[in-house]
Amino acid sequence: MNQYEYPSKILEQAVLEIAKLPSIGKKTALRLALHILKQDVEYAQKLSDAIIHLKQSIQFCRECHTISDTELCDICANPKRDTSVVCVVESIKDVFVIEQTHQFKGVYHVLGGVISPIDGVSPQDLTIESLLERITTHAMKEIIFALPVTIEGDTTCFYIYKKIQDKPIVVTMLARGVAVGNELEYTDEATLARSIKDRVAYSGSK
Amino acid sequence: MNQYEYPSKILEQAVLEIAKLPSIGKKTALRLALHILKQDVEYAQKLSDAIIHLKQSIQFCRECHTISDTELCDICANPKRDTSVVCVVESIKDVFVIEQTHQFKGVYHVLGGVISPIDGVSPQDLTIESLLERITTHAMKEIIFALPVTIEGDTTCFYIYKKIQDKPIVVTMLARGVAVGNELEYTDEATLARSIKDRVAYSGSK
Q1: Does the structure show a pLDDT above 60 at B1?
Q2: Both B29 and B87 in a single domain?
Q3: Which end of chain B, N or C, is less surrounded by CB atoms within 10 Å?
Q4: What chain B residue is nearest to A5 in terms of C-alpha separation?
Q5: DSSP one-letter string for A11-36
Q6: CATH code at position A43
Q7: Under an 8 A CB cutoff, do A17 and B53 touch?
Q8: Conformation bin of residue A204: beta by default, left when phi > 0, alpha when psi is -120 to 50
């Protein structure tokens, strides 16, 4: 790196920290830092406070392990949600995405990752024990796997399945197939193959 | 916005503040916030400190108005730089870009913008007075305009030019033309026209 690249150590420090964020390179980080410099000091203060507050004050729901400001998250605490159906997801982001479809009325369980020996993630690093406990205490009827279609995701599904196969619970997984609105020619082979294998009865309506 | 979209007010606050940064939408802001949540608390602390430190502690060079940790920036303080040649730029970013070419051995003057009646930027909002003072006190020989080729940029050049035209100083501007390595067919007409008008003697070497 050119000695001059940053005329100020303070600026350099800010650029280096901002550039640690995912998909933000040094050029973007510099642009963001210069933008912050242009704003009122209140903006820098608010942004700075929001970041540290986020890490220091946020809680995780004691039931489903998603982000929450309270001990029990809004979904788990909502009496209208069906607590007998649990959707198992990898991360908090997946909860956001599924909630935005407005199709799911059950509750979630955030594993906090998937089993991956290569990355050193073992079942003990995830919230699997807590899931098994919930299934028993809440007398759950259905568990829906919404994990990534990868070796790690499949391994995690199978691991959990082996632990619950003797319990009286229906185990399902998300349908995989051609995306709604997508042309067949732009669909990858694996997805197309899966959508043929898992074809469903044509009901005549959309 | 969906009531559920943010399960936590703390998260929402962080997303809203991060999304105020340029070219960062709410989806990206959420991704960044969740990334910060996954890291150690030290990272959030360092990022938060760097942002507020940036705004609170940074100084601007008393000569050229670029960012600096000291009263006089590294460029203005460098005895190897030719203080009789000043390159006038719109913003601090331009200093970075020109420095990276390693072609310029003079000093800079950051205007902090260009004259723009529409945006309410008048000559008094810029560091033009300070530039005129520098030209006189340092007995400058050449002023190079490196401002954007826009009505505002041209207006600013002309405004400064009128103020210094009686002084014994050479006034130049950056050459505009076909970018190095660019094909003619992909060059816009205005640039091509400019590069024909400003054609230079062929020296036989690259």
Answers
A1: no
A2: no
A3: C
A4: B96
A5: HHHHHHHHTTSTT--HHHHHHHHHHH
A6: 1.10.8.420
A7: no
A8: left
State the Cα–Cα distance between residues B178 and B193, nearest whole angstrom.
Answer: 9
Residue B54 has its nearest CB partner, among A5, A33, A49, at A33
Same-domain check for residues A48 and A94 = no
Which of B50, B95, B96 is facing A13, going by the closest CB pair? B50
What dihedral do alpha carbons A4, A6, A10, A15 form, nearest 10°?
A: -150
Q: What is the pTM of this model?
A: 0.72
Task: Please compute Rg for chain A using Cα positions.
Answer: 22
Q: Using DSSP, how many helices (H) and how many strands (E) does chain B show?
A: 8, 6
Which domain range does residue B34 map to?
A: 3-57
> What are the CA-CA distances from residue B88 to residues A43, B63, B148 (Å)?
29, 12, 11
Provide the edge-to-edge strand list for the sheet that holds A82-89.
Answer: A106-110, A82-89, A142-145, A170-173
Residues A98 and A140 in one domain: yes
Angle of helix B41-57 relative to helix A26-38, nearest 10 degrees? 50
Q: What is the pLDDT of residues B135-189, one digit of tens each?
A: 988 889 999 999 888 899 999 999 999 999 888 999 988 887 777 777 777 778 7
ipTM of the complex: 0.74
Alpha-carbon gap, residue B50 to B134, rounded angstroms: 33
Over range A189-196, report the average pLDDT: 78
| Cβ(B139)–Cβ(B84) below 8 Å | yes
pLDDT digits (tens, 9 = 90+) for B101-147: 888 899 999 999 999 999 999 999 999 999 999 998 888 999 999 98
Q: Which two tokens stand for residue B144?
A: 């190079």
CA distance B117 to B125: 11
Specify the residue for token string 């929450």.
Answer: A68
Closest by CA position to A57, among listed B36, B155, B30:
B36
For residue B71, the distance in angstroms to the closest alpha carbon of chain A comes to: 11
B74 vs A4, A22, A95: nearest CB: A4
| Interface residue A36 vs chain B (CB under 8 A) | yes
Q: Residue B147's domain is classified under what CATH number?
A: 3.40.1360.10
Smallest Cα distance from A88 to chain B, Å: 17
Q: Measured between alpha carbons, how far is A133 from A137 in angstroms, rounded to an integer?
A: 6
Helix (H, G, I), strand (E, B) or coil at B68: strand
